[in-house]
Design goal:
This protein has helices at 41-48, 56-63, 129-133, 136-149, 166-177, 191-196, 229-232, 249-257, 275-286, 303-309; strands at 2-5, 16-19, 29-39, 77-84, 96-99, 111-115, 120-122, 157-161, 181-186, 201-204, 217-222, 236-244, 265-267, 294-299, 318-322. It is an alpha/beta fold and 326 residues long. It contains 10 helices and 15 strands. Helix 4 packs across helix 5. It is globular. The chain folds into 2 domains: 2-135 and 292-322, Alpha-Beta Complex (Quinone Oxidoreductase, Chain A, domain 1), CATH 3.90.180; 137-267, NAD(P)-binding Rossmann-like Domain (Rossmann fold, 3-Layer(aba) Sandwich). Strands 3, 4, 5, 6, 7, 14 and 15 form a 7-stranded mixed β-sheet that branches. A 6-stranded parallel β-sheet has the order 10-9-8-11-12-13.
Length: 326
């Protein structure tokens, strides 16, 4: 099968096309013929080992101390079930599915196997496979932080910093789906896009200092890696939660030891890969409440270019890589 592999950490050109044996599903696994995958922050960090300050050693322990432990990246994908193990009951050949292997990776290949009890779900009928490929990473991350960590509820006032990115664009839509009033922060070229996601208000960070707000937000979700409690604590209402989706070690430590008042909290961590979360996202998508924003698509043989584009200032939404143009 066709695959994109890498054998050392480095720039996008470490990703090279090759051929690998097609895997065979175990009794509880399905074999998926992949139609589309994406470039996520997880793929970028595993390829480059460019970790937030303070997490360099942890990155090597996770991804491979002396070189990549997993040779095929791809944290999420969508495709068609080609074969199912003898004990599989939830999926059958021909089913359209999307999956979130996360740090197990595997999406940068023509085929992948995944256990039916893992993060895999049926694609909603109103989405195509390119859209479905981008459902998981941003959606599951935003869902975990907003619902599970922050206990979002109807009427909450939510500020999303980095609202035009993959996680941020999902967070805007999910917060609206939970009945919140959402303010999205982005740069000038992306403001209209954030409005189309459903944000009640947008802030251009190049023109307005949104950190000066006082007792305004129940939840501040930061995807930019710049937020600290010292800077944004006063913008939180009593009992408010600052969610650090992307933060370095020093930000987390500073927030941990900051003098917080009024029941305000700072919450970091990671979002696990869970099948029930994917099914929840699929239901939202089916109801028209969540649609991954695809900023740009690349062909499979241009995946190195897709990785180079990941940090382009013009980037917005999700980067989708299509294996099967048809």
């Amino acid at each position: 099968m066709r695959a994109i592999t890498y054998h050392r950490y480095g720039p996008p050109d470490v990703l090279v096309p090759g051929e690998l044996p097609t895997p065979s599903p175990k009794p509880t696994e399905v074999l998926v013929r992949i139609h589309a995958t994406t470039v996520t922050a997880g793929d970028y960090r595993a390829r480059s080992l460019d970790m937030p300050p303070g997490f360099g050693l942890i990155g090597r322990l996770v991804f491979g101390l002396f070189g990549p432990r997993r040779k095929v990246l791809g944290t999420e994908f969508a495709g068609i079930v080609e074969a199912a193990g003898v004990n599989v009951s939830r999926f059958k050949p021909g089913d359209r599915v999307f999956a979130y292997p996360g740090a197990a990776f595997g999406g940068y290949a023509e085929y992948a196997v995944i256990d039916e009890a893992s993060a895999i779900a049926h694609v909603p009928t109103n989405l195509d496979l390119n859209q479905a490929a981008a459902l998981s990473f941003g959606g599951a991350t935003a869902l975990n932080f907003l619902r599970d960590k922050a206990a979002i509820k109807p009427g909450d006032s939510v500020l999303v910093i980095g609202a035009s990115g993959g996680v941020g664009s999902a967070a805007v839509q999910l917060a609206k789906a939970f009945g919140a009033h959402v303010t999205g922060v982005s740069s000038t070229p992306h403001l209209e896009m954030v409005k189309t996601l459903g944000a009640d208000r947008v802030i251009d960070y190049t023109r307005e200092d949104y950190a000066v707000a006082q007792n305004t937000y129940d939840i501040i979700l930061d995807t930019s890696g710049t937020a600290t409690y010292a800077k944004y604590g006063t913008a939180l209402k009593p009992g408010g939660r600052l969610l650090l989706v992307s933060a370095d070690l020093w930000q987390l430590l500073a927030s941990l030891f900051a003098c917080k008042s009024g029941g305000r909290k700072v919450i970091g961590g990671y979002a696990p890969e869970r099948g029930e979360d994917l099914r929840f996202l699929a239901e939202l998508a089916r109801a028209g409440k969540y649609l991954p924003h695809i900023g740009r698509r690349f062909a499979f043989d241009r995946i190195a270019e897709a990785h180079a584009y990941f940090h382009d200032p013009a980037k917005r939404g999700n980067i989708v890589v299509t294996l099967d143009p048809a």
